[in-house]
Amino acid sequence: MPRRVFLGLLGVGAALVAGGSSVEGLLGSSVAGSAVGLGGYQVYTVSAGFPTISRAAYRLKVSGDVDHRLELSLEDLASLGYSEVEATFHCVTGWEVRNQRFGGVALERVLSRAGINKSGGFVNFGSFDGIYSESLSMRDARSRGTMVVTHLNGAPLSVAHGAPVRLFVDGMFGYKSIKWLNSISVSQRPVTGYWEQYGYPADAQIT
Ligand SMILES: Nc1nc2c(c(=O)[nH]1)N[C@H]1C(S)=C(S)[C@@H](COP(=O)(O)O)O[C@H]1N2
Ligand SMILES: [Mo]
Description:
Blueprint: H1 3-18, H2 22-29, E1 37-38, E2 41-42, E3 60-64, E4 70-72, H3 74-79, E5 83-90, E6 96-106, H4 107-113, E7 122-127, E8 133-137, H5 138-141, E9 146-152, E10 155-156, E11 166-169, E12 181-187
Parallel strand pairs: 3-12
Antiparallel strand pairs: 1-2, 3-4, 5-6, 6-9, 7-8, 7-12, 9-10, 9-11
Bound molecules: the ligand Nc1nc2c(c(=O)[nH]1)N[C@H]1C(S)=C(S)[C@@H](COP(=O)(O)O)O[C@H]1N2 and molybdenum atom.
Molybdenum atom binds next to loops.
């Protein structure tokens, strides 16, 4: 799609979000939210447009209370092993997309490469959009369905969905699945996630 058309659609999406339910009203009213339909997804960004980085320059930093700090290129990530989780993607505003295959490396493998084998504390996440953040308990971070995602349904992630790397947290609402992921930090304290600042629960478990 030509870039100009795409940006035009983003404007329409933001208007649609703003006109929705009360939770969607929250999404739409808080600064620069935007959305556009894409294969059943609403695509969100809280920054101006979608951030991009070349595949060659990309690094995922792993730091904080770890034995080994890491700076992983996309090749390094792939060398940790590729697996897929098949799941439904649920946004707390009510939409969902079924039968999605999230491919990449289990976060647990990245953490164990950094020397983390404990069960306490928190794992905090940052995005190269410069704004979004998220956090998981160590237990949720190490659960089988928590993935450092490079592929969606067998294809490399698109920029809109967070290229080159996003998180996917199976069993939790989509706001935990931070896009354009570039930092992971292990800590005794959770950071307050972007949407948690506006009242979303830190525990995003879908019940
Ligand atoms: N960096 C970043 N990650 C994000 C968001 C965002 O605005 N920025 N929105 C979150 C929300 S609320 C949802 S539902 C999903 C939407 O994923 P999608 O944009 O790929 O559809 O991304 C999550 N991760
Ligand atoms: Mo969401």
